[in-house]
Amino acid sequence: MSTPTTAPTGLRERKKARTRATIQQAALRLFHDQGYAATTVDQIVQAADVSERTFFRYFPTKADTIFYDQLEPLVAEAFVTQPAGLNAVAALRGAVTQVYSNLTPEQSELERQRQRLIAQVSGVQAVTPQKIQSVITLFTSALARRTGRAPDDPAVLAWVGAMAGVVLVTYVTWSADPTGSRFLDRLGDALDLLEQGLPL
């Protein structure tokens, strides 16, 4: 999907971002229409109107078209720059809202499809733990920057672990919800519980 909040600087970077988004969007539409296993790289490059060489320049494998997520670094950076007076949960809420509220309905639906594929496709599930670890690393660094604590501070690691669990479960339930609920609404409810200490 195209960058929803900030555009890459420079003509070359903008062109690369558009090409990557075009390939990913074509892949996600094909996966939705005919299934992940039935879709070939050749079909993706034809739908995206790019060469096979261009495809592999941006995505080493077919599965990478699912795992590529340009929203995560945008959320992480927005999290760091939220007002200093906000606690970590409020800062995360503000960062996610800042990024996701700029998605078009089509972009939001493609993101839902992408999350559904991550949860359901067996070949993709095998890589999911590596992806989760990369997200934890990204937000551990972001929280350390925001709070001035060390990345290996137990409080930083505990908070990021709790946050990752909340966001992961929200993605899974949102992507499987047939009612068309909004991700921001579901995550907001989950963050309310996290902020309250997860009362049961």
From TrEMBL:
Q: Which residues form the HTH tetR-type domain?
A: 17-77
The record's listing under InterPro entries reads: DNA-bd_HTH_TetR-type_CS, Homeodomain-like_sf, HTH-type_TetR-like_transc_reg, HTH_TetR, MftR_C
Is Membrane among this UniProt entry's keywords? yes
Q: Any stretches that span the bilayer, and where are they?
A: 155-174
State the UniProt keywords alphabetically: DNA-binding, Membrane, Transcription, Transcription regulation, Transmembrane, Transmembrane helix
Which parts of this chain does the entry mark as a DNA-binding region?
40-59
SUPFAM superfamilies tied to this protein: Homeodomain-like
Q: Which GO terms describe its molecular function?
A: DNA-binding transcription factor activity; transcription cis-regulatory region binding
Which Pfam family, giving just one, matches this sequence?
TetR_C_14
Q: Which Gene3D superfamilies has this protein been placed in?
A: Homeodomain-like, Tetracycline Repressor, domain 2
Q: Which PANTHER family does its entry note?
A: HTH-TYPE TRANSCRIPTIONAL REGULATOR RUTR, MYCOFACTOCIN BIOSYNTHESIS TRANSCRIPTIONAL REGULATOR MFTR-RELATED
Protein name, per record: TetR family transcriptional regulator
The lineage is: Bacteria, Bacillati, Actinomycetota, Actinomycetes, Micromonosporales
